Amino acid sequence: RRSMTDKKHLIDPGPSRKGWHRLQKVLRCPRLYALAYNKEKVISATAPAEPLVMGSALHIALAHHYALTQDEWKGREDELYSPEDAVDELARRQHKQHRKTWQEYSDKIKSVYFQYKTHWAMERWDTKAIEHELCVNIFDDERNETYLYTQRVDAIWIHPATQKVWFIDHKTTKRFTSRTVSGYSMSGQFLGYQMIGQEMFGDDWGGVLLNIIEWPKEEGGQASFDRVNLDPAPYSVEHFKKTIIHGERIIRDNANIEPALWPGAHHESACWHFRRCPHYETCQWGDYT
Asked: Which of 32, 52, 76, 168 is the most exposed place for a label (fewest CB within 10 A)?
């Protein structure tokens, strides 16, 4: 989207139209989904949690970094924010109640981005797409319905030697371990990437690559960088369509019910995710006006 006061372009994709985060929310807790999507949006006085702010800000820097390597922007680089300026502009565009919080992280994000581009200065991947929305139709045989399923991939790269197509997902974390990879490998986000990539590219499909950025352990310290393949999960990829259908059925089966009357999950990881669920008091007292 372009600002009315600035001719430069900010890559600000937002969620895909019918993506995994939507289904993940309804599978985590149907009532959470209903209150989040079926109710008029209210700006919270509390800014998003630190991992979300920092992750989003570094994502925007990397989106602009790789966009500037594409033929699409050759000769008109001045129309696109630099990665550093994109971090500042993203913070500026936040709601005024949250803007200061985002701005407090800007210098740290730009420092880590500088370390990133220095670390990977000699990479030779060919960037084919940035923040690209993938779309597939999922058919529910029992209900004779078709559901649109979408995912926005951070980048699509072509391997310089094999010419295989890879979906790239930038992941920021305080600490990266083999357990982290295992968790992502069974995440619906990545099962969806595998399902779609295999269907789209066949023999030219390479897989999903996690582009890992581990935050500095101390202020002003050195970040760590790695790129790893997901653990194989062929059974879950093959049956992921069933998970999508299950989520869509929950949404349709409760569509005409008041949001606070949707079933609640009522377990710790649903009610506390980084911090207390924003609808905690609704489940506590029933008031969501």
From this structure: 76
Q: Compute the distance between CA of residue 149 and CA of residue 172 in angstroms, rounded to an integer.
A: 25
Res. 212: pLDDT tops 50: yes
CB 41 within 8 A of CB 49: no
Per the CB < 8 A criterion, the answer to whether 277 and 32 are in contact is yes
Q: What is the pTM of this model?
A: 0.89
In single-letter form, the type of residue at position 261 comes to L
* 214: helix, strand or coil: strand
Q: Are 65 and 112 in contact (CB under 8 A)?
A: no
Measured distance CA(151)–CA(145) in Å, rounded: 20
pLDDT: which is higher, 137 or 273: 137
For 251, the token pair is 């949404």
Cβ 231 vs Cβ 182: under 8 Å = yes
Residue 2 predicted with pLDDT over 60: no
Cα distance between residue 197 and residue 236, in whole Å: 14
Asked if 191 contacts 234 with a C-beta cutoff of 8 angstroms, the reply is no
Torsion of CA 67, 166, 132, 127, to 10 degrees: 20
- CB of 17 within 8 A of CB of 67? no
Residue 138, H or E segment? strand 126-140
> Averaged over 25-45, what is the pLDDT?
80
